[in-house]
Amino acid sequence: MATYLIELPRTSTKYSTHCHDVLGCVASGKPVETTLQRMRSALKMHFVGLVEDGDPLPRPLIGTQRLSDPT
Predict the structure, then answer these.
(1) Residue 36's domain spans which residues?
(2) Residue 31 forms part of a structural domain
(3) How far does Cα 67 stand from its chain's mean position?
(4) pLDDT of residue 5
(5) 36 part of a folded domain
(6) Alpha helices in the chain (DSSP H)
C-alpha cells in the first residue's frame, strides 16, 4: 500500500487536512484524531471511485523533506 503525505494545519477552531497528491480530497474536524480518521475515509472513498471508473490511482509524492519554519 502506498503512503501519501498529508498536511494537517490547525485553524482557530479545528484541524483541516488535504493531500497534494489527491486533488480535491480534504477533511476537517476536532480533535486531530477525528480529522485523520475522516481523511482516511475520504481517501478510501476517492480511491474506490477511481477504481470503479477505471482510472489509475495517483502516485504518491516522492522525496519529501521537512523544512523548519524560516521565521
Answers:
(1) 15-52
(2) yes
(3) 19
(4) 87
(5) yes
(6) 32-52
Output the nine-digit C-alpha cell for 47.
480511491
Asked if residue 9 belongs to a domain, the reply is no
The residues, any chain, with a CB within 8 Å of residue 43's CB and separated by 6 or more, are 4, 19, 22, 25
User: What's the confidence (pLDDT) of residue 40?
Assistant: 94
Overall domain count for the chain:
1
Question: How do residues 10-51 score in pLDDT, each as one tens digit?
Answer: 989 999 999 989 988 999 999 999 999 999 999 999 999 999
In a domain? residue 19: yes
Name the band, by pLDDT with cuts 50, 70 and 90, for residue 60: confident
Task: Confirm if 30 and 13 have CB atoms less than 8 A apart.
Answer: yes
In this structure, the chain runs to a length of 71
